[in-house]
Amino acid sequence: MTSSGTPLDIAIAYKILRWKPVARIRQHFSQFQNYHVIIEQDQKIEYLVTNEGHWYHAMHQAFTIDQASMDYRFDLIRPNDTVLDIGACIGGFTIPAAARCKRVLAFEPVFTDELARNVDKNHMLDKVAISNKALSGDHKPVDIIWGDRRVVAPTITFVEMIENNNVSFLKCDCEGACWTINPNDIATIRHLEMELHRMGPNWKKGYERLMDTLKKTHDIELIPADDDMVFGILHAEMK
User: Mean per-residue pLDDT for 153-171?
Assistant: First the structure.
């Protein structure tokens, strides 16, 4: 196994990996100069390595690593926190969070295998519990289409996710499924990092209920997003 620690421009790195189009990759990785990119051959699997030393299987969802670093406030994670990551994807939030806290509960219905591979590569299987269940208001399986993937995923409610787990930090990015959560259940968690989507038939009502509830219990900051489907990133700390 060999690797080079030389920082590479992300476009060049992806050219080596024969990923195209380069312009789109460069756009997604607008902040990737903050990372060391290492291309390593490990049983024919290539990896990216961040400047924190976290390894990720190089695949088309790798842009979410950088996205997480820009969107979420890792510095507010405490060593004794139990972190709930809903919509963990390939681990762009899960893995840096696990390096900072006691435990992570990671739910990811589409990229479960890639998430598990990355968690294992970073020797964090003892700190990260992975589930392929999707968030839902009931227990009916959901049919999820994401790019060229289609899965029928088992589901779990938010109350079941947090039950007996003492969750103190929530990150949620689940394409509108967050509107199935009772805001009073979210309000029990110390810190919240949520990507809020314009998805689902009741998203406007869900947003109003969430804000009305949290303004009583948390200090709230909503960062607007320049996206048709995402209207903001919510940061909230319990008062």
Answer: 97
Cα–Cα distance, 115 to 47 (Å, whole number): 13
This prediction's pTM: 0.84
Q: Which 8-state DSSP code applies to residue 42?
A: B
Q: Which pair of structure tokens corresponds to residue 61?
A: 């969802």
Boundary-marking domain end, from 13, 28, 51:
51
Please give the angle made by the CA atoms of 239, 225 and 70, to the nearest 5 degrees.
75
Range of the domain at 162: 61-238
Question: Average model confidence (pLDDT) for the chain?
Answer: 83
How far is 234 from 239, CA to CA, in rounded Å? 15
For 17-31, 35-49, 126-140, which range has the lowest pLDDT when averaged over its residues?
17-31
In 3-state terms the chain splits into helix, strand, coil percentages (rounded to 5) of: 30, 25, 45
Do 131 and 223 lie in one domain? The reply is yes
Domain limit, last residue, from 9, 26, 51: 51
